[in-house]
Automatic annotation (TrEMBL):
Name assigned to this protein: Putative HTH-type transcriptional regulator YfiR
Family annotation (PANTHER family): HTH-TYPE TRANSCRIPTIONAL REPRESSOR SCO4008, TRANSCRIPTIONAL REPRESSOR
Species lineage: Bacteria, Pseudomonadati, Bacteroidota, Cytophagia, Cytophagales
Domain of life of the organism encoding this protein: Bacteria
Endpoints of the signal sequence: none
Length: 204
């Protein structure tokens, strides 16, 4: 194995270890030593590849965003019904959040501190084209396919119903007594349940 291949392999092992630690301890609770232990390397080597856990998180976050945002834009651009788009959006959104459950809290925290700078840096030119979706919602209302609804409210409902369980997971798990496996099963169900709930609430 060449040095370049070895470096790439080690870097990927570190990133996977960081994801595991972030899932179990969150961004605030994670320590570089925890990540080094999970990756099976010493802390000095970890710092050689990544200077801080913030830098590690940024790489993981960018990777998740780079996979998710194109899917959102592709879904919005699809030549299909609004109901199909809602189903695809909810399924893809919750899937990404299940893979990266520590991201929502980080986004909310950082976006509130410096919304424009943070979102511009992280999303770049991949910002979803919501205008296309808004137009389709308005057209569906005119056709009588759905009840009169504010496009902004509908999109916010879709986003919030997908993301809130991950923001409120510690509270929900405490109140419900669910473990991680049970929570994941609930989220798998939610991929379709949220879409159907929203569709049933707007269709005539």
């Amino acid at each position: 194995m060449s040095k370049k291949q070895k470096d790439q392999s080690t870097e990927q092992r570190i990133l996977q270890a960081a994801k595991t630690v972030f899932i179990h301890k969150g961004m605030a609770g994670a320590r570089m030593q925890d990540i080094a232990d999970e990756a099976g390397i010493n802390k000095a080597m970890l710092h050689y590849y990544f200077r801080s856990k913030e830098k590690l998180f940024e790489v993981i976050f960018r990777e998740a965003i780079s996979r998710f945002l194109p899917k959102v834009n592709a879904t919005i651009a699809l030549d299909c019904s609004l109901f199909e788009k809602i189903e695809i959006f909810c399924r893809e959104y919750i899937t990404v959040l299940m893979e990266n459950p520590y991201i929502p809290l980080f986004i909310v925290d950082e976006a509130n501190k410096q919304p424009y700078e943070f979102l511009k840096t992280m999303m770049g030119n991949q910002k979803p084209d919501l205008r296309t979706l808004i137009i389709q919602i308005e057209e569906e209302v005119k056709k009588g396919v759905i009840h009169p609804v504010s496009p902004a409210q509908l999109i916010l409902n879709m986003m919030s119903m997908c993301i809130f369980p991950f923001l409120g997971r510690p509270i929900w798990n405490f109140l419900s007594g669910m473990d991680q496996l049970q929570f994941n099963y609930l989220m798998d169900q939610r991929k379709t349940d949220v879409a159907q709930f929203i569709i049933n609430s707007i269709k005539k």
